[in-house]
Write a structure and sequence with these properties.
Elements (H helix, E strand, L loop, with lengths): L1 H18 L5 H52 L8 H18 L4 H23 L5 H21 L1
Helix pairs in contact: 2-3, 2-5, 3-4, 3-5
């Protein structure tokens, strides 16, 4: 019976010792410090990502705000007085192209719209030379374009 009690006591002691953490206080502190450093590094990474996301959203908000202001500015420019339908078509085409230029989503599209604006100006000159529009029509359309540019610059 004493042998049995000794055996059970020995097994209980082994179980208690095995279940205990055998680390010294220094080892425990080092592990705790390492864990804290890992948490801090992860928190820093998350903070950087959040900051970058916020900066991107802020930049997008500024771009869209500028686009909206430029579109509103063009809409507020008074339409020119023109003598015929051809001149009105050219003015509308020019105004629409300016709006498309403002709203271009990429530098390539913006450049395409810049080229289109130059093409429309050449078309205006060609129609003037052919007598399809008057010199006053050309002047009014070009003044409209100048007013649009001034309005855009003032709005942004």
């Amino acid at each position: 019976m004493i042998l049995n009690k000794t055996l059970w006591a020995s097994l209980a002691t082994v179980a208690v010792l095995a279940s205990c953490n055998n680390q010294t206080p220094q080892e425990k502190a080092a592990d705790s410090m390492e864990h804290a450093e890992e948490k801090a590094a992860k928190a820093t990474e998350e903070a950087i990502e959040t900051s970058e996301d916020a900066a991107t959203k802020d930049a997008e908000a500024v771009v869209y705000s500028n686009k909206a202001a430029a579109n509103a500015a063009i809409a507020s420019v008074t339409a020119p007085t023109l003598s015929n339908d051809k001149a009105k078509d050219l003015y509308k085409k020019l105004g629409k192209t300016w709006v498309d230029r403002i709203n271009a989503e990429s530098p390539e599209k913006a450049l395409d719209k810049e080229k289109a604006i130059l093409d429309i100006k050449n078309e205006i000159d060609k129609n003037l030379a052919e007598g399809k529009i008057s010199a006053a029509d050309k002047d009014n359309i070009m003044k409209y374009q100048s007013d649009c540019l001034s309005a855009i610059k003032a709005a942004i």
